[in-house]
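If you are new to this repository, start here. Below is one unmodified record pulled from the training split, so you can see the exact layout before writing a loader.
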Amino acid sequence: MKKNRPRGNAAPVEAGVSFGSNLGDRADNLRRAARLLAATPGVRLLARSAIYETEPVDVPPEFAGRSYLNAVAVFGVSLPLDVWSERCHAVEDELGRVRTGYHHPRTIDVDLLWFGDAVRDEPHLHLPHPQIASRRFVCEPLAEIRPGLRLPGLSGTIADLLAALSPRPAVRLSGDRWD
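And here is the target side for that same chain:
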């Protein structure tokens, strides 16, 4: 007879998260979000990319001049997927994210990119994230730390996806540090 494991004590699953900010102290917003996630019981930070500065993508014209800082982190997560997803959203709330409109400026954006080999297509949870392959600002930092990663439903590795993307919009190292 199998014993039920208590929540939070499951074998860790590798989960990728992207961070973005274009309001306030952008680098500190990324740092704080990563720290809050890593401090969650049942979660351990495994890797994080450098911090990149990126041109805004698909934003209304009045926000076209607000560049983003972006980064990606990989966590070992011993929580159920739904709990981890809720925690990612809670971190956005803790850091003052206000949802004023589609692709409007934000203090922090925390996107769950993948969670082990989970595939989900629900109203508020799509895994792997459906736009990974089209976003240089996700693929470039992710290729830095997991170039050989293959995700369900995507053809090729993250490095392959990055190589297929246009160089625009521009993504470059920001010079900001995690410490």
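Two things worth knowing about this chain: DSSP finds four helices and eight strands in the chain. Residues 81-94 form the longest helix (14 residues).
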